[in-house]
Amino acid sequence: MAKIDYEEICSKVREIAAEAASFIEKESENFSWDDVELKGMHNMVTGVDYEAEKMIVDALAPIVPGADFLAEEATDAADGPIRSKGNGYVWIIDPLDGTTNYMHRLPPYCVSIALAYKGEIVVGVVHEITRNESFYAWQGSKAYMNGKEIHVSQIDILDESLIATGFSYDSLDRMAEYRLQQEYFIKYTHGGRRIGSAAANLAYVACGRFDGYSQFNLSSWDVAAGSLIVRAAGGRVTDYRGGDDYITGGEIVACNNLIYDKYLQAVSATVTEREVYPVG
After folding, report:
1. Is 70 in contact with 83 (CB distance < 8 Å)?
2. Are 204 and 221 in contact (CB under 8 A)?
3. How many other C-beta atoms are found inside a 10 Å radius of the C-beta of residue 209?
């Protein structure tokens, strides 16, 4: 295979994400609750999710011939390790991250598309639909939003940070852990926010709107694109143990480097379901 230009691919992916975003927003005018399918008690999918995913997959297929797909609504693959059966490339897609928000006409909700090569994310695009903001990066690049370079925040004291959290639909057995995180961030930071989209949370860390974000019980398509963008923006991304298993490991910590150590300490302590004391 000829050498691939990731910047060029990123540009094409941005166009595809924007087209899908436009379709999703237009379809919101015709949204009906009769079009909702339950994947679980609190996990819903709409016909728009399926149609947008097919649109994205069809448009991506010729960009990297032979690439595999890992997509939330299972157009061509199921969640699992990021492995390619062919040339090493895998597209990782969430056609509508924040479906519940979308159904209630509540921002944000996003199109999230990433390209991985041999397990490493090399292109990431998150298009936040309600604000028409395109966040993106490719291997070795800076991070950008609508053509302008973005950076993580420079807040260096955890007490002065604004933290994003999330709670997935399959995490009811970990409510105590989530409650402890919420209590800590309410007491010892400028507060916690739960906005309903992992992709948006990561994009907002990348541009400095949030200083940190953590969540467990996530899938690859929730974090693949956004994690690359945070790192390209100068941020730190790990799992709850400080390791690199955040794409397929189901948990993620993303923040600026200045608060990382103390933020990770606070997040990790809640995993043991014990009270967390101020860490500064």
Report:
1. no
2. no
3. 16
Under 8 Å between Cβ of 234 and 122:
no
- Residue 179's H or E segment, with its range, is helix 175-188
- On whether the CB atoms of residues 108 and 94 are closer than 8 A, the answer is no
Model pLDDT, residue 2: 62
Q: Tens digit of pLDDT for each residue in 248-258?
A: 999 999 999 99
CA distances (Å), 240 to each of 73, 164, 248, 264, in order? 27, 15, 13, 7
Answer whether residue 208 shows pLDDT above 70: yes
Establish whether the linkage from the previous residue to 278 is cis, with ω within 30° of 0: no
Q: Which residues, in sequence order, are bridge partners of residue 43?
A: 40
Question: Is the distance from CB of 23 to CB of 55 less than 8 angstroms?
Answer: yes
Percentage of the chain modeled with pLDDT above 90: 66
pLDDT digits (tens, 9 = 90+) for 149-159: 999 999 999 99
39 φ, ψ to 5°?
A: -90, -20
pTM of this structure: 0.89
Burial 91-123 (b: 16+ CB within 10 A, else e): bbbbbbbbbebbbeeebbbbbbbbbbbeeebbb
- Please give the DSSP secondary-structure letter assigned to residue 158: G
Mean pLDDT of 107-136: 97
- Strands 68-71 and 89-97 come out as parallel
